[in-house]
Description:
The protein is an alpha/beta fold. The chain has helices at residues 8-11, 37-44, 48-54, 75-88, 107-116, 121-124, 150-154, 178-185, 188-196, 203-217, 242-258, 287-290, 331-335, 339-349, 364-374, 404-408, and strands spanning 22-27, 62-67, 92-97, 134-139, 145-149, 157-163, 220-228, 234-240, 267-276, 303-312, 328-330, 359-361, 385-388, 396-400, 413-415.
Amino acid sequence: MRISKFNTSLASENQWFPLPNMVSVNQHFDDTCLSDPVGTLLDELKKPDVLRQLYKIQEGDTIAIGCGSRGISNSVPLLRSLVSFLKQKGALPFLFPAMGSHGGSSEIGQREILEGYGITENNIGAPLQCSMETVPIGLTEDGRQTYLDKHAYEANHIIAINRIKAHTAFQGPYESGILKMLVIGMGKAKGAQTVHEQGFDAMADNIQIFGKTILNKAPILLGIGLLENAYEHTSHIAVLPPTKILEEEPKLLKIAKSQMGRINFPACDVLIVDRLGKDISGEGMDPNVTGRFPTELCKPTFSAQKLAVLDITQNSHGNCYGVGLADITTQDMIDHSDLQSMYINAITNTVLHGVKIPLMCKSHMEAIQTAIATCVGIDKKNPKIIRIANTRDLSTLMISEAMLHEAETNVNITITTKPEPLQFTERGNLF
């Protein structure tokens, strides 16, 4: 999709400064992780309170396993092992997308997202049933209708398996995780819209209100919470019976937040994000990393005067939600985007700030130069620049020479290269 853009090169031809040399650095985080995630899952399934739930499975029972729209470490082997375990119990498990309105709010789009992660019948050993159809399952305590995926509700049992992590637009005891998947993911577009109607100000309360209704009305067998460290390695797995989800998930969220990856600097002049994507974060770029939140409900720990995002991941399937949190982007970014998919996402969650199109530049070089030129009160000949691949892969990043002293005195940073200029193609894009 091509949108006419202002020629920033002509407008600012006398404002460009030479780009600074950059160095690569390694960031150090807690690397605690599971040596055998599959073995840990199988051990969790043998816990006494979990076994009591599993005794409910009868020969031939169908079990719906909800799968989300985010890339999760070890998702394929964990799902494959879970399916195999359930088949040994005589059950007939199947997979279904539990991702609200993602994938353009379509059956095909949601199937493509899961297949992009390798979640297919051949890889997992269970059929994938995709539908946007929901059924009303009961009223919340304050009288609002609750919706659930039709295939899931008609199954004998439901399992939710999801990563537990900090949300990108609100804070509360339940953010991204098991309960949110039950409420918004399994509610498909209709359920997600219902929960978002009161905005993110009420989201922390609504996740609990609708979640309690689903736990009481739907045949939830288990919730499986996955935690990852900053290196995207599985660090913890908890299998919870439905009676334990409300109690245990907040504890797991606290652990997840303590293990989050972050930029180990307080601020910079320009933050460059090579790619955003729905497979990276619900906001495309995790605001917990960039400091750019779509609402005022969260407090940033990092700030950049200008943020430039250069392109989109392939697994985002064109959904560039979150691009509006940047100040500058590129024509390539927009050309690779499916605005309709992004707009459906925004209409569902009611927050439009994240889908505004920033100033567009013709190349990566021009985007970086524009970011520097529009900063105020900085040394433009020695700008403080940080470049990251995306907001999920934070073990390695690049910083400009002006930040070397900060890096040298930071125990969580190791400098790995000498200062070198950024390398660009003939088109002005970064290698």
